[in-house]
Design goal:
By secondary structure, the protein is α/β, with parallel strands linked by helices. The protein has two domains: 192 residues, 3-Layer(bba) Sandwich (FAD/NAD(P)-binding domain); 144 residues, 3-Layer(bba) Sandwich (FAD/NAD(P)-binding domain). Helix content is 32%, strand content 27%. It has a six-stranded mixed beta sheet with strand order 5-2-1-9-21-20, covered by helices on one side. Strands 13-12-11-17 form a four-stranded parallel beta sheet. Strands 6-7-8 form a three-stranded antiparallel beta sheet. Strand 15 and strand 16 form a beta hairpin. The termini are far apart. The relative contact order is 0.15. The structure holds flavin-adenine dinucleotide (FAD). The site of flavin-adenine dinucleotide (FAD) has 33 residues, from helix 1, strand 2, helix 2, helix 5 and helix 8. Flavin-adenine dinucleotide binds next to helix 1, strand 2, helix 2, helix 5 and helix 8. This is FAD-dependent oxidoreductase. Belongs to the NADH dehydrogenase family. It holds the Pfam family Pyr_redox_2. Its cofactor is FAD. GO terms for molecular function: NAD(P)H dehydrogenase (quinone) activity.
Length: 405
Amino acid sequence: MRKPKIVVLGAGYGGLVTVTRLQKALSVDEANIVLVNKNDYHYETTWLHEASAGTLHHDRVRYDVDAVINRSKVEFIRAEVQDIKPEEKKVILNTGEVDYDYLVVALGGESETFGIEGLKEHAFTISNVNTARQLRDHIEFQFATYANEEEKKEERLTFVVGGAGFTGIEFLGELANRVPELCKEYDIDYSKVRIYCVEAAPMVLPGFDPELVKYAVAQLEKKGVEFKIGTPIKGATETGIIVAKDEDETEEIKAGTVVWAAGVRGSSIIEKSGIENMRARVKVNPDLRAPNHDDIFVIGDCSLIINEEINRPYPPTAQIAMQQGETCARNIVKLVKGEGDLETFTPHLKGTVCSLGDDDAIGVVFDKKLTGTKASFMKKMVDNRALFLIGGPSLVLKKGKFNVL
Ligand code: FAD
C-alpha cells in the first residue's frame, strides 16, 4: 500500500511541535514526513525583541532544525514556499515542487501595516533573525554616527516604537536597557536620547490587568520612555513619523529609527493559495483543518480560532501554536491509522508574561499576578519550556536562559 506523505510548512513553534510528535508516533513504514522551511534553523520568535535591541546575540535565539528532527524519519527541504495549490495537492517552492496527502501550514505571521503610508519603506519590524540583525546594527550605527558627526543631528538619537501591544512593550524594555550601555560606549550624554511609544488605542497592553499595565508604564517611564497614547500614526517618512494631533491636524516626530510593532497578519502564502481567509488567517474547523479542505491543517499565526467566552479571536501566540501542533499531530496520526473521529482543539492558557527588559516583567500565571524579578524569572521559565517541548532537556541545556536574577 502507498504510504501517505505528510508535508509540514514552517519550522516555527507550531511546525516543529507537529513534526517532533509525528516522528515519534509514526514509523517509516506508515508515512513519509517532509518538513519545509526557509532556513536550516528555527528561531525563537518570542525572543526576537532581545536580538533586535542587541541585548541578546542573534545566535542565541536560533538553533539548527537538525538538532530536533530525526533525519531517518523526516526529510528536510530548505526552501521558500511560494504557493499552495490545494486542487493539485502540491506546494510550489523556489527550488521546485512537493506533493502531499496531508499538509500542515505553519508559516507564522507577517507584519500588518494597515495601509499606513510609508511604514513598509521606512519602518523596521521585529519579524525574523534578519530583521533583528538589521535593527540592532541600525541602532548602533545611529550612536556611532552621532558620536562622529560634526553637525550633530539630534533626531538621530530619537527612537519611535509604533504599538504598545506585547511586541512593542517587550522591545521597549530591551531598548531602554540597551541605550545607557550605548551611551557609555559612544560617550554620549543620555539626555540626548528620546524614546517614544506611539499607540493609537487609548491604552497600553490592551487585555492585560490594569494594575500590571500601570506598573509596566511606570517602570518604562522611569527608564526614559515617553508614551503617546491615543495617537494614531498617519504615515512614516525618511525623517520620522506623522501623527494625528487632533481631528484635523497632524504633526511630525523626527526620528532616526521607527519600529513598527503594532500588527500581525497571517502568511501571504495563505492569501495566494485561495484558501478562505481573513487577513491571511484561516478560521479553522475545530479539528484544525481548513474549511472545505480535509487534507489541509492550518496552525499557529496562520490560523484563527474564536474564544467563545468573549466571541473574539484568540491573539496569536507561541503558546497556542505549540498546543495546536500537539493536536494537529494526533489528528494526522488518526487519519493515517484510520482511527476514527478527530480531536477538537481547545487552548489551555497557562498565563501570560510580558518582559520589561532582562530584569523586569509583568505577568499573570495560573491566575496569580506577578511583577519584577518574580515575573522575570517566570518569563525565563516560559522561554525554557518552549525549548523543552520541542527539543527536550538537551536543548534547554544548550540554548536555555539561566541568568536568573
Ligand atoms: P513561527 O514560530 O513564527 O514560525 C514560522 C516559520 O515559518 C519560521 O521558521 C519561518 O522562517 C517559516 N516561514 C515563513 N514563511 C516561509 C516561507 N514562505 N517559506 C518557508 N518557510 C517560511 N507569543 C507568546 O506566546 N508569548 C510571548 O511571550 C510572545 N512574545 C513575542 C515577542 C515578539 C517580539 C514577537 C514578534 C512575538 C511574540 N509572541 C509571543 C508571538 C509568537 O511569537 C507567535 O505567535 C508564534 O511565533 C507563532 O508561531 P508559528 O508556529 O505560527 O510561527
